[in-house]
Amino acid sequence: MAKQKLKIILPVVILLIAVLLMIVLMKGRQPAEQREDVAVGVLVDVISAQPEELIYRISSQGTVRPRLMTSLVSEVNGRIIEVSPNFVEGGFFAAGELLVKVEQDDYLTAVKAAEANLARATAALQEELARVRVAEEEWASFTEGEAPELGLRRPQLARELANVRSAEAELERAARDLSRTELRAPYAGLLQSKTVNIGQFISRGTVLGSIFGTDLAEVRLPLTDHDLAFMLLPGGEQSSYPLVELTALVAGQQQHWPGRLTRTEGVLDERSRVIYAVAQVDDPYRLQTDGKQPLRFGRFVHAAIEGSSSGQVIRLPRNLVRPGNQVLLVNTDSQLEFRPVQVQRTDERYAYVMEGLAAGEHLVVSALPNPLAGMQVRLGRVDGEWLDSPAVSDTEASGD
Hints:
Layout: H1 2-28, E1 42-48, E2 51-66, E3 69-73, E4 78-83, E5 92-93, E6 98-102, H2 105-142, H3 154-179, E7 182-184, E8 189-194, E9 201-202, E10 207-213, E11 216-223, H4 225-228, E12 243-250, E13 253-264, E14 275-282, E15 300-317, E16 326-330, E17 336-340, E18 342-346, E19 350-355, E20 362-364, E21 377-382, E22 385-386, H5 394-397
Parallel strand pairs: 1-21
Antiparallel strand pairs: 1-20, 2-11, 2-15, 3-10, 4-6, 4-9, 5-8, 6-7, 8-10, 11-14, 12-13, 12-15, 13-14, 15-19, 16-17, 16-20, 18-19, 21-22
Helix pairs in contact: 2-3
Domain Multidrug resistance protein MdtA-like C-terminal permuted SH3: 324-368
Family: Belongs to the membrane fusion protein (MFP) (TC 8.A.1) family.
Coiled coil: 111-184
């Protein structure tokens, strides 16, 4: 009987103890701390707007060409008996150097024949002069009055004088043909191509080759009307054309050649609507300057033309200027702001802002997927330097 009562009372006691213990724990529990959610701005990198005075450099490009190009053409007939060692493609030669020599035997014979003909004509002229003197003396001795032309042998004298002049012309022609058997370089240059060689028979008008002058090289540079607005061309106070720096990648290294604009072509290209300016480079093959990289004909080069100077402008990476000439900056309240600006000029790398920005304002350079005006942000790097700020994750630092 006692065991049955214990089985009934014991569970009830345990249940009461558990209820009391739960009430005690609930009364001793501290309420959970309430925290307000604080919005953390996106971390962005910025650069500071810095006004500066600039000298614009107009970019263009073109191919290097020789200023002088000549086709060598034979003026006589004959067989080639001698060629210069420099008469090879790419060979350099000096002004007046013998390049090709044609067999001269026939032309030497022609000169001798012309000399003999001149001697005969001269002798005949002397004989006729003697007859004229005799005729004048006889007429003066036997007849009074003015002597007729025929009586004084004036027509015969004129004929012999004409024969002498004709013989002199023939001698000059023969001597000229003889000199043309030696083809000499009209100026210092290089042989671009050749079409004949020693032993070959050529006729008058045969093209022997093509030569380029090496004193000056030219580059035609296309320019737009907008480019011309920032260039200093002769006129008014400006008396000379601007300087040009040509660059090209040669054997993996960037090479530079100084030059100067010499003229602009007076007609716009009908298809591209650009005008061409011509730059010249002295001694492009550096034949008088040892140890420098030559500027070879046919090379494609980039040109930086010295332009006009500007006042206080702000130079920005071109990608920072958004459609509508707007830039994204961080205002004094650490919020994003879209600001319209006035762009004076752009090139392949930069945009040059005249108005709309103040010195020291922060322009966003981080890539933000969906920037909105008024979005709260934090400054990360300013002009490439980190600000003193709490450590953030790589994801926040990138602005993602």
